[in-house]
Amino acid sequence: MLSVRRKMQKFVLLLILFGILAVVLLPIVNILSLAFLPRRIYYQSPGILTALSNLTMSNFYRVMMLTDYPRYVINSLLYAVTVTILCAAFASLAGYAISRYRARFIKVYFYFLLLLQMFPAILILVPLFIIYRDLSLINTPWSLLLSYTAMNMPFSVWMFKGYIDTIPFDLEESAMIDGASTAQVFCRIILPLAMPGIATIGIFAFISCWNEYTLASVLIRNASIQPFTVGLQMFIQRNITDWSSIATATAIAMLPTLLFLTFSQRFIVEGLTAGAVKE
Question: Which of 4, 64, 108, 258 has its CA 20 to 30 A from that of 116?
Answer without folding.
Answer: 258
